[in-house]
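Budget justification aside, the reviewers requested a transparent look at the raw inputs and outputs of the sequence design task funded under Objective 1. We therefore reproduce one unedited record. The lines immediately below are the structure tokens for a 177-residue chain.
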């Protein structure tokens, strides 16, 4: 067999194998790559990697379960969230808090509600949930971080961009099926 025929067959076989395992699905104004029918958010993974490589978290206080923030601030965050949608929001667990100046980004898990990311502001009235800036619910099959950051950035444009950039969702919290 001539070399160009063998090379042509090899290329066609390789392309056939790749095409038989890959597909593209349009969903929610974006696209998913299906690898053997398993959805992969390529755009979300690239966006998350770029965010992680380029962000500057100087001036952002990040803590898990509020361990690096003052007890008064953690208490104020819990009271503001509990008072926002009682009674289901009373039983909450803070997964992580990010703080910059008067702004707090709280990732919260509830006993009866879906997990949420909530923007709060410290103002003259105390700690308050900022203008309904709340993300709640599952993100599966999407990469959660880029979608949550984009939504909250649009709903609360006054919040410093570093606060959004430094937020990484807790693993598996928003990828429930």
């Amino acid at each position: 067999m001539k070399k160009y025929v063998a090379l042509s067959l090899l290329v066609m076989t390789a392309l056939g194998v790749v095409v038989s395992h890959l597909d593209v699905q349009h969903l929610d104004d974006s696209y998913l790559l299906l690898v053997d029918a398993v959805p992969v958010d390529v755009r979300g993974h690239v966006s998350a990697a770029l965010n992680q490589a380029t962000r500057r978290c100087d001036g952002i206080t990040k803590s898990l379960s509020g361990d690096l923030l003052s007890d008064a601030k953690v208490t104020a965050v819990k009271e503001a969230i509990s008072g926002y949608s009682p009674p289901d929001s009373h039983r909450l667990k803070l997964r992580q808090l990010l703080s910059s100046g008067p702004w707090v980004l709280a990732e919260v898990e509830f006993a009866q509600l879906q997990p949420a990311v909530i923007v709060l502001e410290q103002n003259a009235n105390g700690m308050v949930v900022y203008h309904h800036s709340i993300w709640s619910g599952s993100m599966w099959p999407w990469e959660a971080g880029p979608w949550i950051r984009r939504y909250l950035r649009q709903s609360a444009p006054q919040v410093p961009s570093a606060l959004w950039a430094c937020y990484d969702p807790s693993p598996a919290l928003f990828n429930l099926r």
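The chain has two domains: 1-40, 41-165. Helices lie at 3-21, 42-54, 71-84, 144-155, 161-165. Computational costs for records of this kind are itemized in the attached budget.
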